[in-house]
Amino acid sequence: MGSPCAVFCETTDTRLADRIAEFARTEAARIDRKFSRYRDDSVVHALHASCGRPFEVDAETTRLIEFGAALWRLSDGRFDLTSGVLRHAWRFEEGVCAADTSKIQDLLGHIGWQRVRWEPPFITLPEGMELDFGGIGKEYAVDCVADWTAKECDFPVLVNFGGDLRCTGRPPASGAWSVGIESVQKSGEAARRLELKSGALATSGDARRSIVIDGVRYGHIFDARTGW
């Protein structure tokens, strides 16, 4: 997942807690392995290697693509599964923050869900276009773990994959999970705390990944329509 992952269980049943932790670890690894753009054995790599030919995907990949397409429609194109190519202009890797904004205009020619032919279960990407599940992958993994956990136990559980969280079971003894939103000014400290009793919380900020250009601070969330 490219980020710290944790599962918190409020229980004295250590055997079941260990089972949950092991499932979370293996499920996160499975999803990362299947949908990573960095691996040569992932479904994403196979799709990109199809070189403009129709590519058949399985039921799980179909669900993720359908979800991404819905987000594209709901956001009026601001979110786009094909916008991962912007990494060639913006770099927010561990210890590396760099930008070459001169590449943005050319890259926009390879972005746009409307250019993709999607006829489930077949998808056809035009030459030079890519698919990137990075914007929804962690949330999907959290849901997979939380759904499984909810069937296995009713004690309080909080799944946290890189700041995307979901709780299952009854609320903890304190009444709610205390979730800290990290401060931009003071790394590791909470600028605000939220009380999470049920449901999920997705966060994406500039506390860890940001870049300053001409005095302006930019986070790592992009508008796929502009590349900025």
Can you walk me through this structure?
The longest helix has 22 residues, at 14-35. The chain has a four-stranded antiparallel β-sheet with strand order 1-7-8-11, with helices on one face. It has a three-stranded antiparallel β-sheet with strand order 2-6-5, with no helix packed on it. It has a two-stranded antiparallel sheet with strand order 3-4. It is globular and about 55 Å long. Helix 1 (14-35) packs antiparallel against helix 5. It has five helices and 13 strands. The chain is of the alpha+beta class. Helices cover 29% and strands 25% of the residues.
Q: What's the arrangement of secondary structure elements?
A:
Elements: E1 5-9, H1 14-35, H2 43-48, E2 55-56, H3 59-74, E3 90-93, E4 96-99, H4 104-108, E5 117-119, E6 122-124, H5 137-152, E7 157-161, E8 164-168, E9 177-182, E10 190-196, E11 199-202, E12 210-213, E13 216-219
Antiparallel strand pairs: 1-7, 2-6, 3-4, 5-6, 7-8, 8-11, 9-10, 12-13
Question: Quick recap of the structure?
Answer:
The protein is of the alpha+beta class and 228 residues long.
Write down how many β-strands occur, each being a DSSP E stretch of 2 or more residues: 13
Percent helix range:
25-40%
Strand content bin: 15-25%
Task: Give Rg in angstroms.
Answer: 19 Å
List low-pLDDT spans.
none
Average pLDDT for all residues: 92
Order of helices and strands: EHHEHEEHEEHEEEEEEE
Secondary-structure class = alpha+beta
Number of helices: 5
Major sheet: arrangement of strands: 1-7-8-11
> What is the 3D form?
globular
Describe the largest sheet. 4 strands, antiparallel
First-residue to last-residue Cα separation: 24 Å
